[in-house]
């Protein structure tokens, strides 16, 4: 895998595709936090445009999509998430960071109610999607709007095509034909940055792909069903640096269309892709703010220690 | 081999390549494994050798239909003592047809029931029920078949006789057979119950082995629970379902006592064109035929005919094992494990 990917990246630069870039926000103009507390109506907040080198991908606006109101999750007697309130806006990437076992994955899995699959889990508080309480929504309907990517790539034991088409085929009552699906599948694979590698073998088993390709295939599978919010649970922790870079690039490209929440252990990754950062510790949301503020001028002592690498 | 010795001690120098212990264990285990294979091959060849006079005398007509198979078996049993006058004439189709019919119907039925009940046990049953139902189902696999036969003959057969068989049915076939409830239906129903536990045990285990993250992946795409289980889990365990069906087929082919008790033990080929009546007709598969013929084994041609039945059963089992393996290979292309 390693050698193969190195070649790929080499090819990317030679074939004129821009190399993977790091998003740097120029110093003077920090992104403006969207004002909080406007639960209903989800008005479009026009924030100042970001100034980003190599431009083009900067969201010029953000819009509140999900709102977590004093969420608590406990497993038996263990409190995994304590009274957390946070917002997820489209047009930006929210990164949840923190040491292992701090509740960030549980928080993420609460957003699409996947945490409810754990029999011992008890959830309190409210999670709103576009002003609607998700507990009053059907699980499948919620999950149609809120897609998720897992830590371990989990392509189904089917062909590459069938994997991407899976959600479209199995969600409705009528199964669309291959002709209708094909353009959507191709588009999803392109957006996930894997089309070039799989275009001539869509009927191959997805499990024969490398780990990095599998994860990008899973992104394509999520994108094919057009989610409005995408949850990423440490999507790169099992991947090599090159696949990681491709996925990060995809995330940055996607944020103009959908709201993204990423849980990550990797502070550099959070710094690279996120606009907003939430730092969690032992179930508490210790700090929540723009990426510059959390990394450069953290307010809480714990955050300071964590982002400096003193613990965690 | 080890003529070299350590100078001082005289202990032989052990060479790396041929550690004698490893070599011995290898040979021993290898011998054991190959003797099992040899034993199976020997058994098949011996059975064929013993059965040969029956096959040779009838040619391919052995497998065909013609005449009353029970009368033919009686003739063989009453063969004259002179080997030159041995009677071998047999048209075994009714017995073969009965074997195919009863095994195939019960395996089909059991596969459906096993898949759905396994899904229920693993994914839908509430926790306490799940803990209760699984060991109970697995225990059913250990119930001796003669007990099933007893219940069948005392409960199921009279029930079929009184519930499903009308006087018109009885009189419509009275010129060939008597309908008394001993039937294909009774055989299939009990055989299905008998092979279910082992299938459920295998399918439940393989459903449990389906990675949770596949199901979560499907649920996270907004697919409902039933669809996710059906399209991801059941799809992934297809090789295991085939393996379970093959095992069940072997068990069904070999079941003798219970079937001898409830199928009427008459060498009659039930006719599918009789409609629903077809299920009420008696028959007798190959394995119970061997059981029934037990007291005649000392008559040489009769014993050889029984060997012929046994040979067909062994070869069918080998055939199903291999075809099951081939199907698992082709299904395994898109899944993990169970190759």
Written account of the structure:
The complex is a heterodimer of chains A (312) and B (339). In chain A, the strands form 2 sheets. A 6-stranded mixed β-sheet of chain A has the order 7-8-9-4-10-11, with helices on both faces. In chain A, strands 1, 2, 3, 5 and 6 form a 5-stranded antiparallel β-sheet that branches. Chain A has helices at residues 2-14, 104-111, 139-145, 160-171, 178-191, 195-198, 211-224, 241-254, 267-273, 291-296, 301-308; strands at 44-45, 62-75, 78-90, 93-97, 121-129, 132-133, 146-149, 229-233, 259-263, 276-281, 284-290. Chain A has a domain at 2-132 and 146-152 and 231-308: Rossmann fold (3-Layer(aba) Sandwich), CATH 3.40.50. In chain A, helix 5 crosses helix 7 and helix 7 (211-224) packs parallel to helix 8 (241-254). Chain A is α/β, with parallel strands linked by helices. The longest helix of chain A is centred in the middle third of the chain and has 14 residues, at 178-191. Chain B is built from 13 helices and no strands. The model of chain B has no long low-confidence stretch (mean pLDDT 88). Chain B is mostly helical and 339 residues long. In chain B, helix 4 (127-140) crosses helix 7 and helix 7 (184-209) packs antiparallel against helix 10. Helices cover 67% and strands 0% of the residues of chain B. Chain B has a single domain (94-334), classed as Orthogonal Bundle (MetI-like fold), CATH 1.10.3720. Chain B starts with 19 loop residues before the first helix and ends in an 8-residue tail after the last helix. The interface between A and B is medium-sized, with 31 and 23 residues.
């Amino acid at each position: 895998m390693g050698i193969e990917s190195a070649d790929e990246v080499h090819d990317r630069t030679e074939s004129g595709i821009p190399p993977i870039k790091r998003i740097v926000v120029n110093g003077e103009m920090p992104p403006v936090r969207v004002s909080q507390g406007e639960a209903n109506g989800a008005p479009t907040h026009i924030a100042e445009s970001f100034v980003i080198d190599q431009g083009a991908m900067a969201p010029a606006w953000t819009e509140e999509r999900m709102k977590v109101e004093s969420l608590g999750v406990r497993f038996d007697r263990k409190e995994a998430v304590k009274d957390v309130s946070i917002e997820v806006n489209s047009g930006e990437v929210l990164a949840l960071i923190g040491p292992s076992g701090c509740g960030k994955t549980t928080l993420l899995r609460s957003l699409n109610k996947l945490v409810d699959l754990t029999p011992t889990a008890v959830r309190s508080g409210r999670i709103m999607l576009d002003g609607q309480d998700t507990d009053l929504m059907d699980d499948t309907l919620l999950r149609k709007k809120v897609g998720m990517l897992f830590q371990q790539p989990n392509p189904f034991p089917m062909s590459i095509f069938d994997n991407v088409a899976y959600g479209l085929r199995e969600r409705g009552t009528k199964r669309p034909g291959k002709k209708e699906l094909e353009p959507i599948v191709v588009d999803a694979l392109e957006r996930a940055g894997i089309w070039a590698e799989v275009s001539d073998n869509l009927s191959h088993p997805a499990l024969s792909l490398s780990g990095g390709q599998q994860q990008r295939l899973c992104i394509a599978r999520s994108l094919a069903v057009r989610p409005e919010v995408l949850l990423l649970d440490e999507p790169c922790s099992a991947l090599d640096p090159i696949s990681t870079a491709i996925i990060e690039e995809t995330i940055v490209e996607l944020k103009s269309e959908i709201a993204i929440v990423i849980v990550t252990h990797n502070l550099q990754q959070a710094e690279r892709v996120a606009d907003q950062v939430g730092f969690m510790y032992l179930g508490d949301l210790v700090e929540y703010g723009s990426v510059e503020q959390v990394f450069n001028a953290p307010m809480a002592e714990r955050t300071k220690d964590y982002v400096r690498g003193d613990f965690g | 081999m080890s003529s070299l010795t350590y100078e001082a001690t005289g202990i032989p120098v052990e060479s790396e390549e041929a550690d004698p212990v490893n070599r011995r264990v290898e040979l021993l285990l290898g011998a054991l494994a190959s003797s099992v294979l040899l034993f199976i091959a020997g058994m098949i060849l011996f059975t064929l050798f013993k059965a040969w006079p029956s096959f040779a005398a009838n040619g391919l007509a052995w497998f065909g239909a013609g005449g009353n198979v029970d009368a033919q078996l009686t003739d063989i049993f009453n063969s004259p003592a002179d080997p030159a006058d041995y009677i071998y004439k047999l048209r075994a189709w009714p017995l073969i047809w009965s074997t195919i019919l009863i095994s195939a119907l019960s395996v089909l039925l059991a596969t459906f029931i096993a898949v759905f009940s396994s899904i229920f046990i693993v994914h839908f049953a509430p926790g306490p029920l799940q803990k209760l139902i699984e060991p109970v189902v697995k225990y059913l696999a250990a119930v001796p078949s003669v007990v099933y036969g007893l219940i069948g003959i005392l409960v199921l057969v009279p029930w079929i006789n009184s519930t499903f068989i009308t006087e018109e049915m009885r009189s419509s076939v009275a010129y060939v057979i008597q309908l008394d409830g001993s039937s294909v239906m009774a055989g299939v129903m009990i055989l299905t119950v008998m092979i279910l536990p082992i299938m459920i045990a295998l399918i439940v285990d393989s459903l449990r082995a389906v990675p949770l993250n596949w199901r979560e992946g499907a649920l996270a795409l907004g697919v409902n629970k039933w669809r996710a289980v059906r399209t991801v889990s059941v799809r992934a365990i297809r090789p295991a379902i085939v393996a379970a069906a093959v095992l069940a087929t072997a068990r069904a082919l070999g079941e003798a006592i219970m079937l001898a008790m409830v199928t009427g033990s008459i060498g009659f080929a039930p006719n599918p064109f009789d409609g629903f009546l077809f299920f009420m007709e008696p028959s007798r598969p190959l394995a119970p035929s061997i059981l029934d013929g037990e007291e005649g084994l000392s008559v040489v041609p009769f014993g050889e005919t029984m060997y012929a039945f046994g040979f067909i059963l062994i070869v069918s089992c080998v055939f199903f094992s291999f075809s099951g393996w081939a199907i698992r290979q082709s299904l395994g292309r898109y899944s993990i494990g169970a190759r």
